[in-house]
Amino acid sequence: MSQKPKPSHGLAACPGCAEPLDSGDRFCGACGYDLSAAPAAGEGPDRPTVAIGTPVNWPDAPPREPGSLSTMTQHPGDLPGTDSGGHDLPADGAAPAAPATGPTDPGPAAPGPAATGDFELAAPDPRAAVRVDDPVPAPAPVPVPEAVPAPAPVPVSEAVPAPAPVPVPEAVTGAAHGAGLCVACRAGRVDTDGYCENCGHAQPRERDHMEREFGGVAAVSDRGLRHHRNEDAFAVSATTLPDGSPATLAVVCDGVSSATRPDEASAAAAEAAGAALCAALPRGTHPQQAMHEAIVAASEAVNSLAEKAADGEPQRNAPACTIVGSVVADGLLVVGWVGDSRAYWVPDDRTAPAARLTEDDSWAAQMVAAGLMNEAEAYADERAHAITGWLGADAYELDPHTVAFKPDRSGVVVVCTDGLWNYAEGPADMARVVPADAADHPLHGARVLVGHALDGGGHDNITVALVPFAVPPQGAGSA
Fold it and tell me: Is 121 exposed, middle or buried (0-12, 13-18, 19+ CB in 10 A)?
């Protein structure tokens, strides 16, 4: 759960039901909670992320000595890969490779194709169909009534062919209102209002617990033990590159709970990013470029949710969320993010070190990077989880981060919100809780990780996606 600055009484949402509050509220309008009895901000074990709403002039970080890490983050230069411009990164002290042909920044490609390795950087084709293999959350299925026969059939010389069927991904598991047995009494049926006809027990909502496995990638999302709704969302899918080789992807978003409609923000961002990736990769767009464009599309989707204030400016505390995504394609591992949701690399060979592939957009990360605090000091501060970047109409700047790696061994990418990494923050900690067979059984692995966070207290919504990475055969894939 992420939060932006709280109102004067110190609470952005009701502690009883998590409904948004105004600064002058003394009681919650939804449940009547006495706000004067609420604990002071920062008390208790649940210290959610908060967003800093104005730019901060951070001091420059001191130079990092080769081979050392100023934080627990794996720096891009510590693994073989490419930077955001597509240039090869030096490995093991080798001299930097010659820059690859292509743009020098991760921004939108210029019109016309430009070759980069085995991919093509191309401007989006407005004629290309956008397909979402795995939108999140999936809308409730709408029953389609039987077609009414025409009163008088008109003879047609040649039948019109039916449109090609669209593949439908596996449905998210969870309670479906109006179907099945009550989860409490296991006897009564659930009415359309979501309550048991026998015992009256309210049934879990669809987003309280979601699971999906598609094309070798899997994700699980859970409401956790402290919040009344799940404000996380995810998208997982598989597609193919122009040469027919497979590509898998996962996107995870965490709603900013102090903003309005954070659950809608995360869902809109995950769906838009997943759709953008599924449209761009089959066209030959470089995965790193596609990830950048997907984050921009997600930002636009969240921005569209904001209502305009009387002066025409975006509303205060407009819908907002963080985002992190990963694409595995043609021997490349690409990660992109904004905010403090993270991606970790966990090799199958656990004697090799795990790595964190993202740098948080947060107060604590900035303090550590600037050399003003060590990691223990920074994360002990009550401002530790204040985020400095997010998607939303009131974000002061959109700065998508992308990085590409070429791992030399097989493993799995853990893409998650802080509801998980709060309970396994370091790469070694994460590697210890990821099952050894996670690459072969990603859905089981994701369930285990969600269970680990629940066992640790479940103070936040928990979402994790696992994307297996297999080293391509010798001579295959891009150089």
Answer: buried
pTM: 0.65
DSSP state of 445: H
Cis peptide before 161 (omega within 30 of 0): no
| Stated length of the chain | 479
> Are 268 and 301 contacting, i.e. CB atoms less than 8 angstroms apart?
yes
Residue with token string 């439908």: 168
What type of residue is 71?
T
Tokens linked to 129? 């169909």
The predicted structure's pLDDT at residue 474? 64
DSSP 189-247: BBPTTSBBTTT-PBPPPGGGEEEEEETTEEEEEE--SS-SS--EEEEEEEEE-TTS-EE
Cis (ω within 30 of 0) for the bond into 124? no
Alpha-carbon gap, residue 270 to 207, rounded angstroms: 14
φ/ψ bin of 200: left (φ > 0), alpha (ψ from -120 to 50), beta (otherwise): left
Residue with tokens 């001579």: 475
Give tens-digit pLDDT for 223-240: 999 888 999 999 999 999
Q: Is 469 helix (H, G, I), strand (E, B) or coil?
A: strand
Q: What is the mean pLDDT of the chain?
A: 73
3-state SS class at 345 = strand
Distance of CA 138 to the CA centre of its chain: 16
Look at strands 2-3 and 81-82 and give their pairing: unpaired
Cβ pair 122, 103 in contact under 8 A: no
SS3 for 361?
coil
Cβ neighbors of 243 (< 8 A, separation 6 or more) are 118
The number of beta carbons lying within 10 Å of the beta carbon of residue 162 is: 6
Give the burial class of 272: count Cβ atoms within 10 A of its Cβ; 0-12 exposed, 13-18 middle, 19 or more buried: buried
Per-residue pLDDT tens over the stretch 286-316: 999 999 999 999 999 999 999 876 666 666 7
Instruction: Give 269's DSSP letter.
Output: H
Strands 2-3 and 49-51: parallel
pLDDT of residue 203 exceeding 80, the answer is: no
> Beta partners for 212?
219
pLDDT digits (tens, 9 = 90+) for 313-350: 666 789 999 999 999 998 999 999 999 999 999 999 99
- Distance (Å, whole) CA 136 – CA 458: 22
